[in-house]
Write a structure and sequence with these properties.
375 residues; alpha+beta; eight-stranded mixed beta sheet
């Protein structure tokens, strides 16, 4: 029997949000955990993210919510603005960690990664950078993982937390498609305007835009470019093109445009989703986070799902005698919630492109309230 209370060793592939969360919780429960991260140390990509209520609830269970709130920017509401620059309503998000604490926090992605990495390493997790898993064999009670440095690990658990283009997913024989939804998302790191004390979303004639505070001094601007094929642009054209897209928005977006022009941190990425329709596990191997369920960014809940995955995975393994039983229970507990979020994010992306914002806003509100239910 693959006893969770016997050989408690794990290799996790990917030192992102899902992988680091799973690693630190497993380590706290007595597992010996190694992470294989293909990228170099401290090479976290992305400018910022929102940690919604479910993410804060999970982080609070780990004792990390207050640190994230201290290093980020706490918020309670999303303000929707119509094409004329007028308010189209406010969504007050559920405060899941207490009435006196914010409902969500915006923060720089590298800051969240640093907090999770430091906590994991203090818990005994060993992170190997520039390394990944190249082969997997199931050996009854263990998984035999071949690493890219030529070494082999025989462990009780293999976790693929290596993102939407997961290689572990393929090594385990799990298949899914990457779906592109006709949108490119732009992000630019800018100084935070004083009026930006929550998330703002601006409807445009063609595209949508927004602003998310990350700290007392920083925010990021986002723009969703609708009805476009996947394409690349030279880095030198990104800031001027983003400013051009923002010129058609009235109201407070006019204050944002000069900030974008001065920004040296502008990125443009395709909106893609992935969703494993069947099992997320084979034998004692499992995929979590974006490797199993990558939503479109419209719900700002990808990080929440990733953090919840790491926490729930460790809890389910603790509750079952065998690793296999724990993994099956984990997938059964998570699949419906994650599927609903991915499908809702895709629906919102479609409504945005159809300029049906009055239908998208209530859907966002309803989905946030569904996500407020226990994980």
């Amino acid at each position: 029997m693959n006893s969770c209370r016997g050989a408690r060793t794990a290799v996790i592939v990917g030192a992102g949000v899902a992988g680091l969360t799973a690693a630190l919780v497993l380590a706290r429960k007595g597992w010996r955990v190694e992470i294989a991260e293909a990228g170099p140390e401290q090479a976290t990509s992305g400018w910022g993210l929102c940690l919604t209520g479910p993410a804060l609830r999970a982080l609070d269970e780990l004792g990390l919510a207050d640190r994230c709130l201290a290093e980020g920017y706490g918020m309670t509401a999303i303000t929707h603005v119509d094409r004329n620059g007028e308010s189209a309503g406010h969504v007050q998000l559920p405060r899941l960690i207490g009435a006196e604490r914010p409902a969500m926090v915006g923060m720089a992605r590298p800051v969240l990664h640093r907090i999770l990495r430091e906590t994991a390493e203090r818990s005994g997790v060993v992170v190997h950078y520039g390394m990944t898993v190249t082969g997997v064999d199931q050996e009854e009670e263990l998984v035999r993982a071949r690493l890219s440095d030529g070494t082999v690990r025989q462990v009780a658990l293999l976790v693929g937390a290596d993102g939407i283009r997961s290689s572990v997913r393929g090594l385990l024989g799990l298949e899914t498609s990457l779906d592109y939804h006709g949108q490119m998302v732009w992000r630019a790191l800018v100084p935070r305007p004083l009026w930006a004390t929550g998330v703002h979303q601006f409807a445009g004639e063609v595209n949508t835009a927004g602003l998310v505070p990350l700290s007392g001094s920083q925010a990021y601007v986002f723009l969703t470019e609708n009805g476009v094929g996947r394409s690349g642009l030279p880095d030198t054209e990104l800031a001027p093109r983003l400013r051009e897209f923002l010129e058609v928005f009235p109201g407070r977006v006019e204050e944002i445009r000069p900030l974008v022009s001065a920004s040296e941190s502008v990125v443009r990425r395709p909106v893609q989703t992935a969703l494993l329709a069947g099992a997320w596990n084979r034998g004692n191997g499992v995929v979590i986070g974006d490797a199993a369920h990558a939503p479109a960014p419209q719900m700002a809940s990808g990080a929440a799902l990733a953090i919840e995955d790491g926490l729930v995975l460790a809890h389910e393994l603790e509750c079952h005698e065998s690793v296999g039983a724990g993994l099956r229970s984990f997938v059964g507990r998570r699949a419906q919630r994650c599927r609903r979020l991915v499908q809702t994010s895709v629906e919102i992306a479609g409504l945005e492109q159809a300029q049906r914002h009055h239908e998208a806003y209530p859907l966002v509100d309803a989905c946030h309230r569904q996500m407020a239910e226990p994980a």
